[in-house]
Amino acid sequence: MNRIAEPLKIKNTTFKNRIIKGAMSEALANQAGQPNHLHLGLYEAWAKGGLGCAITGNVMVDYRAKNEPGVVVIETERDLVKLKEWADIGKKYGMVQLIQLSHPGRQCPKGLNKETVAPSAVPFSPLLATTFATPRELREDEILDIIQRFATSAVICEKAGFEGIQLHGAHGYLISEFLSPLTNKRNDQWGGSIENRMRFLLEIYKAVRAETSDNFIISVKLNSADFQRGGITEEEVVEVFKAIDTAGIDLIEISGGTYEAPAMAGAKAEKRKQSSIAREAYFLDFAEKIRKEVKCHLMVTGGFRTVVGMNAALDSGACEFIGIARPLAVETDLTDRLIAGQDVRYAVEQIKTGISFVDKMAIMEIIWYAAQFKAIGEGKKPNPKLSPFKVFLGYAKNNVKAVIQGRVNSRKSA
């Protein structure tokens, strides 16, 4: 029996199958952070391909804190009409949609924003310090403001018709920066013990839950580990999972890594063993451990490539949902094919430009796929053989434009 095809209900929302598209950066918005027809075209293509649920790419809750050019920003009802059109696409095809709400914290390219902020003023490693500036430490009033921003954005998402949101608490963005002792050196109620370091996440959850309806789905993406020496321990991670589960979270997606240790892109994740195809997912072992500790639904993303492996994961009880990301960038009809018993067509390999310092970062694992999304949004077919070098040149050119425009806007607002 193909477990992938089984429906599952969370609150009043039915997921028609167990495949969820993990968040991937679309980079399709304009400089003002507005969604457009390209987003609609992209998500309609996935909906037509049978996808049970789509989690959007990073959506910022603060225009002053964007993680990259082309990111969507939801902080007011300015784009409510277009957001409703986006939500309606999912309803038309029976595809649940969760908006991934995020604040990037210190992970913003130099010059893109007026400044970067974080729990503490911790610089990046020498390799990444050329790209990312040392952030300014947040004041408590700013922390409280960001918490409210998440709630405000969630309210707008519900008003637009989306079934729920996902809090991005992984991959080195602001929520995970608070969780990690490497990036959180505070000695107030927001730092120190794991109870204090998880306070930011829990307060965001409480604020979102208080201002949305009971049937609105709230999920979170959390690292199983940040894969850095001195980072959050597995024992602490378990405490975070248990605390957010007790608070009432509906779904937890399990991932791992940061820009400085990009396991989310497969760069440092456990290699799959051909002799044990059921273990093909990067974070499945941790999911089995955490399943014994929490009651909420679990989603594992990263590494799934075969129907056998996906069904084995579901049969094991380690997770209720299979997260797939990069393969969907080149196979929009993948869900229908998986349900029909067919495996992923294209092997996912590290995207390399040939430029050493670029290839050591996770950035190409984002922007190469974003180029595919633009083509899909325009009604074209994705190109698995697209040149990474050409994609990087285009990204660098657009990034320079965005930085220049950001500086102009900063001078105007000064």
What does this structure look like?
With 414 residues, this protein is an alpha/beta fold. It has a single domain, classed as Aldolase class I (TIM Barrel), CATH 3.20.20. The protein is 39% helix and 13% strand. The strands form three sheets. The chain has an eight-stranded parallel β-barrel with strand order 3-4-7-10-11-12-13-14, surrounded by seven helices. The longest helix has 26 residues. The chain is globular.
CATH class category label: Alpha Beta
CATH fold-level label: TIM Barrel
Helix content: 25-40%
Fourth-tier CATH superfamily name: Aldolase class I
With helices defined by DSSP (H or I, 4 residues minimum), what is the helix count? 15
How many separate domains make up the residues?
Answer: 1
Describe, in short, the structure shown:
With 414 residues, the chain is of the alpha/beta class. The chain contains 15 helices and 14 strands.
